[in-house]
Design a protein that fits this description.
The complex is a heterodimer of chains A (about 375) and B (about 350). Chain A is about 35% helix and about 15% strand. Chain A has about 375 residues and is α/β, with parallel strands linked by helices. In chain A, strands 1, 2, 3, 4, 5, 6, 7, 8 and 9 form a 9-stranded mixed beta sheet that branches. Chain B has helices at about 25-35, 65-70, 80-90, 115-125, 175-180, 210-215, 235-250, 270-295, 305-320, 325-345, and strands spanning about 10-15, 35-40, 55-60, 95-100, 100-105, 160-170, 190-195, 205-210, 255-265. The chains are: A alpha/beta (about 375), B alpha/beta (about 350). Chains A and B meet through helix 7 and helix 8 of A and helix 7 and helix 8 of B. Chain A: Its EC number is 5.4.99.30. Chain A: It is an enzyme of class 5 (isomerase).
Chain lengths: ~375, ~350
């Protein structure tokens, strides 16, 4: 690292990144994001009634998909995409042709840092994704690649190259992402603490991945970002991003990829109804007690050399070990397979290229 | 989750004195130290008399005391290792130890940080090593467990070690500081978090606190560099000890926290000069880390002493042949447990 140089300018990546936004209401929030989002292509996934018109503010370059589009494009495989739940956003990941995806909820706005400056969340996510992760040894000064930080005394030099970063998990000021019981007990709690850190989540450690402010390298990990079966006709909601996060973390750990969490913050404005949330989460609260040991103990074999292979192996184990918890998991396991089939159909060349890249990497 | 407030007489503050004039150090820390009992241990190699201001409840130990109390031993209490003698003679549940070249830091609002109170808070609230909470320490005011955090894991486990951080001169190694001579840590990260189980970290001795009853014997002066010096760049003992403590905590189901509190560390020493000595330490880390990552302790090791004995055996077996420094470390670890047991069984 050069001593005393000016911080590098973060590339815009405007032709390499898509912003995926699920919405059922409107996209008014985009006005506030305009200075940061306008250079990028948007993929809007319209949930709910397809006959409703969602107005996109002027000046944005976008493609919009409603339920009719999803059914038309995927045919019978559309069954894996949730309806009446923001989990439908993962359809946007599938149809994107870019290397990176940033996804954000339509009730998330630009936050301010402690100096009062507007936070360019996308720029921070890009910084996170373009610098390595360090999952094998915890650095007590957090992300060592940030300006003004470094590896501490005792950090092995052989681990200082890090590994590629697959996911950048951002946080939220104002309305915190609490579950329904916590919301009911603390309805007025707001997250006002700006923690000026990015850090890698260590290998072997699971975390609750929130989809409100999330970026990832689609080429490295895209097929693992399936947000499950939620919403209409399903016994559970508000576990879409959690499910994707646990699968993604297990696969990243297996393939030697990193996940970062921390900055950037966005401003989360809308508190959802805790009673509605409780109904959605209810089963999940019990099921997660089984799911967590499952994910903590899951082992992927050496021949799982691509994300798709890892994911299909996971789906097999979900069926075998979680099917007995509830029949929902049999359906989910099938949907996971459908998702990969659909992903590979819509992204044919990438599947082979990714496998080749990983194979080349392994043989170095 | 509320805990009974900790009594002042459950805490010892242990300061290893590597400099003789501690007047400004103690005056700066007075507001935070004066409620507690202090154990000052003078570096056996330091010739000058210690200068400590009045108004503190303290015991000072010098080379003569160390020799008299411990008796004949292969353990060296020279330099930064002198503080371990303080850990040994303490009879308290909690120990806080800070290097004598550190000052109280200021937080982002410009208020001085009570590092002692923060360490006590860290040690007396649960740790959460089995699942990462994205809002960091869920027991802090204004924070909680996030959506998706399993309810069965929300009681947490006892926190045995609290690792604080440093503003200004960060605890970087000599090569890094030599490459970036003007780099100073100005970033106050307002977080405490639990280091997940199975994740290792470099534990810096500059600003730490621990539950002596739970893990006391697991902090030891065992891995000495051939030319260990009087600046942190020229030592590795705390890093080695700290990583062993983490392995032991993981085994015993105890937690390790990192983050707040910060202390402000004085500029001192010459990183380029230290490069020559610390290079040895840097090389040793390459062997130490893979070894510790794969170390499994037997189920029968139920106390910190048991764990240290088991680790010493494995260190000797697996690392002893690659470098004599590891063989000595293993012997020191066993010797430490022997001394510890002797001290503990002595009447107060």
């Amino acid at each position: 690292m050069a001593a005393g140089s000016r911080p590098a300018v973060t590339p815009l990546l405007k032709d390499e990144l898509d912003i995926v936004i699920p919405t059922i209401r409107n996209l008014d929030f985009l006005e506030m994001w305009r200075p940061f989002f306008q250079p990028y292509h948007l993929i809007i996934v319209q949930d709910g009634d397809p006959s409703k018109t969602i107005k996109v503010p002027e000046g944005f370059d976008y493609e919009l998909y409603n339920r009719n589009d999803i059914n038309r494009i995927l045919g019978p495989k559309a069954s894996c995409i949730s309806f009446k739940d923001s989990a439908c956003r993962c359809f946007g990941y599938m149809v994107s042709k870019k290397k990176y995806v940033y996804t954000i909820d339509d009730d998330c706005f630009v936050a301010k840092d402690p100096s009062g400056k507007d936070i360019n969340a996308l720029e921070q996510h890009i910084k996170n994704l373009l610098s390595p992760s360090t999952p094998f040894f915890f650095n007590t000064l957090y992300d060592p690649y940030r300006d003004g930080a470094d590896f501490v005394r005792g950090y092995p030099f052989s681990l200082r190259d890090g590994v590629p970063t697959a996911v950048s998990h951002g946080l939220w000021l104002n309305i915190p992402d609490y579950d329904a019981p916590t919301q009911l007990v603390k309805p007025l709690e707001r997250n006002t603490r700006y923690v000026d850190a990015v850090m890698t989540i260590p290998k072997g450690t699971l975390f609750p991945m929130c989809g409100m402010n999330l970026a990832f390298d689609r080429e490295l990990i895209g097929p693992a970002m399936y947000f499950g079966l939620m919403g209409d006709g399903q016994p559970i909601g508000r576990y879409d991003d959690m499910w994707a996060g646990w699968c993604t973390k297990v696969i990243c750990d297996h393939l030697g990829l990193g996940i970062k969490t921390g900055l950037p913050y966005i401003w989360h404005s809308k508190a959802s109804n805790p009673f509605v949330n409780l109904k959605k989460e209810y089963k999940g609260i019990f099921w997660q007690e089984e799911l967590i040991p499952f994910f903590q103990q899951v082992a992927l074999t050496k021949d799982c050399t691509t994300v798709q292979k890892c994911y299909l192996e996971l789906s097999r184990q979900v069926k075998e070990k979680l099917g007995k918890v509830d029949d929902y998991f049999n359906k989910l396991a099938d949907a996971m397979v459908t998702w990969i089939q659909a992903w590979d159909e819509l992204n044919p060349a990438k599947a082979d290229a990714a496998a080749a890249a990983l194979a080349n990497g392994a043989s170095k | 989750m509320s805990q009974a407030p900790i009594k002042d007489n459950e805490v010892d503050i242990v300061i290893g004195a590597l400099r003789s004039d501690l007047s400004s150090f103690f005056n700066e820390w007075r507001a935070y130290f004066s409620r507690f009992h202090l154990i000052i241990v003078k570096d056996p190699d330091l010739k000058e008399e210690l200068k400590i201001p009045d108004g503190f409840n303290l015991n000072v130990y010098t080379k003569n005391d160390i020799d008299r109390i411990v008796g004949s031993t292969s353990i060296s209490f020279s330099g930064y290792s002198c503080r371990y003698f303080g850990f040994l003679v303490s009879k308290k549940k909690y120990i806080i130890s800070i290097d004598d070249d550190c000052h109280p830091a200021k937080d982002n609002k410009g208020n001085f940080v009570d590092a002692v109170a923060q360490h006590i808070e860290n040690l007396t609230t649960p740790a959460t090593p089995f699942f990462f909470n994205t809002l960091y320490d869920p027991y802090r005011d204004g924070a909680d467990f996030v959506r998706g955090y399993p309810f069965s894991l929300r009681n947490g486990v006892n926190c045995a070690l609290s690792c604080g951080l440093w503003l200004n001169l960060a605890d970087l190694d000599a090569p890094t500081q030599a490459l970036k001579p003007s780099e100073r840590n100005n970033r106050y990260v307002d977080a405490v978090l639990t280091v997940p189980t199975a994740a290792l970290l470099p534990v810096s001795g500059i600003n730490i606190a621990f539950d002596r009853e739970a893990v006391g014997p697991a902090l030891f002066p065992a891995l000495r560099l051939a030319e260990e010096g009087k600046v942190r760049w020229e030592t590795i003992e705390d890093i080695w000890s700290g990583m062993c403590v983490k392995v032991i905590c993981d085994h015993l189901g105890l937690g390790v926290k990192t983050g707040l509190p910060y202390v402000w560390r004085t500029d001192r020493g010459d990183a380029v000069e230290s490069l020559k000595k610390e290079w040895e330490g840097v090389k040793l880390m390459e062997e130490v880390v893979p070894f510790l990552q794969s170390t499994m302790l037997p189920v029968t090791a139920a106390t910190a002493e048991d764990c240290v004995v088991e680790m010493a055996k494995t260190v000797k077996q697996q690392l002893g042949s690659s470098n004599p420094v590891f063989g000595h470390a293993a012997d020191s670890m066993l010797e430490w447990v022997r001394i510890w047991k002797t001290m503990v069984s002595r009447p107060s």
